[in-house]
Write a structure and sequence with these properties.
Blueprint: H1 3-33, H2 37-49
C-alpha cells in the first residue's frame, strides 16, 4: 500500500467535505435570509436536526 497515496486521499476527502459544508452553509443562509418570520423558525428547527444552526440565526 502506498502511504503517500492514502494520505493524499484522506486530505482530498477532508478538503471536499469542507468545501461541501461551505456550500451548504451558503445555501442555508440564503434560504434563511429569504424566509418569512414563521419560516425562519421552522427552517432553523430543520437545520438543527443536522447540526447546521451554528451559522444561522432565526430572528
Amino acid at each position: 500500500m502506498n502511504h503517500n497515496s492514502t494520505e493524499a486521499q484522506v486530505f482530498m476527502s477532508a478538503t471536499m467535505a469542507e468545501a461541501t459544508k461551505s456550500i451548504l452553509k451558503k445555501i442555508a443562509q440564503e434560504l434563511l435570509d429569504n424566509a418569512d418570520s414563521k419560516g425562519k423558525h421552522e427552517y432553523a428547527a430543520f437545520l438543527n436536526k443536522f447540526g447546521l444552526t451554528s451559522f444561522t440565526q432565526a430572528n
